[in-house]
Amino acid sequence: MPLSQEAVMTALGSITLPGTDRSLVEAGCVRQVEVDGATVRVLLAVPTGNPADGDAVRADAVRVLEATEEVEKAIVEAKVLSPPPDSEAPAVGSQQAPAWADRLADIRHVIAVASGKGGVGKSTVAANLALGLARLGRGVGLLDADIYGPSQQIMLGGGQPMGDPSGKILPIKAVGGVKVMSLGMIIDADQPVIWRGPMLMKALEQFIGDVLWGELDDLVVDLPPGTGDVALTLCQNVPLAGAVIVTTPQDVALIDARKALLMFRKLGVPVLGLIENMAHFTCPSCGHVEHIFGSGGGLRTARELDIPFLGEIPIDSAIVAGGDSGRPIVVERPDSPASQAFQELARQVAEQLS
Ligand SMILES: Nc1ncnc2c1ncn2[C@@H]1O[C@H](COP(=O)(O)OP(=O)(O)OP(=O)(O)O)[C@@H](O)[C@H]1O
Ligand SMILES: [Mg+2]
Fold first, then answer.
1. Which residue's alpha carbon is nearest to atom 28 within ligand 1?
2. Low-confidence ranges of the chain (pLDDT < 70)
3. Domains of the chain, with CATH numbers?
4. Smallest-distance ligand from the CA of 115
């Protein structure tokens, strides 16, 4: 019978994470499993800070896996991480200094791209905003902090990032000269990401601390949707220059955009403005403009909330094609109305930052 992922997880579930009463699986330590015939490759994270635990867990994993009937060879890597903090993240409004500030000292502005709702085009806006800022002559990086569903390895083109001798990661120099780093470049895209709770925060922290960005004017951060732990962790630990909130014209998206805005306000992060994506569609044959998802909602919401309205991005199939091919529309078709709207967004963001 061929070896299944379930069989691998069952075997790993019999090993206890040192210092806890939880199994490696329960503790979210299994980061990657690859089955190739009778060979299995496993990446484990051991969040105890103790190299001896890493060695012990690795040896145990090889032993139980190779004792599994269908496994001939088990190749196991155990990465020892520093332990998660004992306490929860600091309460909203606490006066703690941003913990990762020193690691980002060579970056002038960190800009978060956020939304209340999923699928509204955050990653698309983040990629094209980064490229628009680069076209203004700025040094730009793009960090894909969507650890649940990273996409910038596709939108801006991927490749395997190189490590340097100190164990740090060099970002990929992508299209338009933007430096990009996405968790999607490190993990196997087909594997579910099993980061949970404190591990998740630790993963993000490590990710941020380990990338050698060099000097940058702007680091654009593509957040996962909503006002969850990643957004909160980032706001509390990184000195953000500002946040751009992406919405679509529907009421449901606008309600969620307000929630995102209120979160940033509560955390003292300046909101650079609201951008309405998928605002309207122009029929390519007759030129008729159709507001498929409603009209004027983004502008109205920005006015009500007293934040700048950063414009409307039309619906354009070239945006989808650009995102899927690693050549976003701002580089592929810079003269299109959508690209001009993205470029205007970049111009307004740069102006606010200065
Ligand atoms: N203006 C647009 N016109 C046409 N398609 C668009 C537009 N904006 C985004 N899309 C497409 O919509 C899909 C979702 O966009 P994207 O991945 O950027 O959203 P997201 O908010 O980052 O999603 P998630 O919440 O899953 O991270 C993609 O296929 C993208 O190409
Ligand atoms: Mg996204």
1. 320
2. 84-99, 187-201
3. 5-80 (3.30.300.130), 101-353 (3.40.50.300)
4. 1
